[in-house]
UniProtKB/TrEMBL annotation:
Transmembrane segments: none annotated. It comes from Vogesella facilis. Residues 11-322 form the Enoyl reductase (ER) domain. The keyword Secreted does not apply. Keywords: NADP, Oxidoreductase. This is Quinone oxidoreductase family protein. Gene3D superfamilies: Medium-chain alcohol dehydrogenases, catalytic domain, NAD(P)-binding Rossmann-like Domain. PANTHER family: QUINONE OXIDOREDUCTASE PIG3-RELATED, QUINONE OXIDOREDUCTASE-RELATED. It comes from the Bacteria.
Length: 324
């Protein structure tokens, strides 16, 4: 029987339960997928906690790699035996097998391993749209990236360095500072021991940066605004410390005619062409050696609750995966 992780009430990691479920057969537009590796992302904790509400009971997870075992009617871009990966679509990646819509699935090149794909699709395509389309960075610019040693941050630092962009990264420990430096951060700020705004002003000679990428949320919102140059953009793409508080738009004018955006991946890979272009851009960076990604920790599917606890306690660095 097929094992899956489900939760029947929102709460802490303890609400995640290992259950048995028959995945069924694919209908029109669907495939039956056998997972080989499953990505764990911070957004999964938002769904589990209820910050991003789901209809309960619910499966969890939106990223994985695997092999197509059966194809429903009308699926023309995939065949049985294809190695695929995905980020997005309905929740349910925390499972051995699942029937799912074929639309989010991307065929994996032979030179991209399953465990790499499982921990890079969501985070890597997020980096792609953030730095190429939300705010298109240019060589020679200096940007600020919060949580530079996290899963998204590690990919972003490498990708940005390969483009000739200088990254100021914030981290919460000396160990994470070392990781950020090793991956290519020009400057690393430990927010627990240093004044982030003062250091950014020092690094930029008081000019500020044209863009701040912020997945932390509530705790860094004011800091991020104060690090921006006039007409700079705050790209808020996560809530690791809680949601950004409500604010008056006049605040943006007062701080230098700033821009604020709250993007999400789904709106940037809404068409098949956008999805495949984003994935191929990511695969190209990996293939070129500009972005190197391996899971920093592997957990059994049955240990999903422990993986969430470690993630929320900041005991992990980089990407983590579940093995079904």
């Amino acid at each position: 029987m097929n094992q899956i992780i489900r939760f029947h009430a929102t709460g802490g990691p303890e609400v995640l339960q290992l259950e048995q479920s028959d995945p069924g057969s694919p209908g029109p537009g669907e495939v039956l997928l056998r997972h080989s590796a499953i990505g764990v992302n911070f957004i999964d904790t938002y769904h589990r906690s209820g910050l991003y509400p789901l209809t309960l009971p619910s499966g969890l997870g939106s990223e994985a790699a695997g092999v197509v075992e059966a194809v429903g009617a009308g699926v023309g871009h995939l065949a049985v035996g294809d190695r695929v990966a995905y980020a997005g679509g309905a929740q349910g990646a925390y499972s051995q097998r699942r029937v799912m819509n074929a639309a989010p699935l991307v065929r994996l090149p032979d030179d991209i391993a399953d465990d790499t794909a499982a921990c890079v699709m969501l985070q890597g395509m997020t980096v792609e749209y953030l730095i190429r389309r939300t705010f298109a960075v240019e060589a020679g610019q200096t940007v600020l990236w919060h949580a530079a040693a996290g899963g998204v941050g590690q990919i972003a630092v490498q990708w940005l360095k390969s483009l000739g962009v200088q990254v100021i990264g914030t981290v919460g420990s000396a160990d994470k500072a070392a990781i950020a430096h090793r991956l290519g951060c020009k400057h690393v700020i430990n927010y627990r021991t240093e004044d982030v705004v003062a250091r950014v002003n020092e690094i930029t000679d008081g000019k500020g940066v044209p863009v701040v990428y912020d997945s932390v949320g509530k705790d860094t919102f004011d800091i991020s605004l104060d690090c921006l140059a006039p007409r700079g953009m705050l790209v808020s793409f996560g809530n690791a410390s809680g949601a950004v508080p409500a604010f008056a738009p006049l605040l943006l004018a007062q701080k230098g005619s700033l821009f604020f955006t709250r993007p999400k991946l789904g709106d940037y890979v809404a068409t098949r062409a956008e999805l495949e272009t984003s994935a191929e851009a990511l695969f190209e960076r990996i293939r070129a050696g500009a972005v190197k990604v391996q899971p920093s920790a592997r957990y059994a599917l049955a240990d999903a609750a422990r993986a969430h606890a470690d993630l929320e306690a900041r005991r992990t660095t980089g990407s983590i995966i579940l093995l079904p």
